[in-house]
Amino acid sequence: GPTIVINGNTFTKIIGAQLNCIVHEKNTVIDEDLILIGNLKPDYSANIHGIPSDQYNSKYSFYFDGTIPDDYMEGSDAVGGPGALTGSISLSTWVKHDVTLPVGAPDRIILDRANAGVTQGYALVLDDISQGRWSFYLGTGAVSRVRATLPHPPLRNVWYNVIGTWNTDTKVQSIYINGVLHDDTTLGAVTLVAPANNTLMGCANPPGTWPFTGNINNISIWDKELSPDEISELFNGGIPNNLDLHSARSNGVSWWKMGDGATWDGTSWTVKDLWGGTDVVSNSMGYNGRQIDTP
Fold first, then answer.
1. Could you read off the pLDDT of 25-68 as tens digits, one per residue?
2. Partner of 113 at 20 to 30 A CA spacing, among 8, 36, 264, 276?
3. How far apart are CA 14 and CA 206, in angstroms?
């Protein structure tokens, strides 16, 4: 039968068990309140997902309220750092937005490691085109964009997995939504210009501009163009998974779970970069910015 672990205490070989569990999340000192391992057929009445054996359970995301000039996260890696890439790259995030963009509204930035005009670096964006399209921006001395053609605008309060890729050899820039290729373009003889600005989440550079409104979960950066199979593996049927077990893990540069494992010091949240060490810290985000809301 399955094994049940609650706050580090293990109860093994429980067959046909019925478990009623109430967890007061704010007062717990560990991140994973409840772990179920084994051949499970759970039935939950709240926000904890039924998950197969050894699967990563993403429980939290961060909500960004779209307020100017605050409510964003920032690293301290302006010069160098693992994300200062100039070769092939892939960016991935899980995201849902909860505003309708008026025609001509500013873009909403999910992940930004770029200068103000995105002539260097890269970004994942909810573009203002057609009242919002998931987009991947690449800085090659000028800005190059690929935009998802459908859905536009994306449905509000629906989780999407957005992945942008760039192959420095073939010069192909692509965007995938929920594991499916939605747009690509072939550029000329250009290269990615290394970013010289801090990593930002929920806004653009300068910090606080072009704010995003909605939830962000599991951001990752890779130093290769992920293949369609690797993208499908990352999408995982719509459930964030343990990227340490991904087949392209050796190409992983940065991974922020965006909620799970984050720490609160009474003023701000710190989100660890589990691969690259580029931790990000929240600006003017309250304790309730971390929410039990995930794909």
1. 444 333 444 444 444 444 433 444 444 434 467 889 999 998 87
2. 264
3. 54
Can you give the pTM of this predicted structure? 0.81
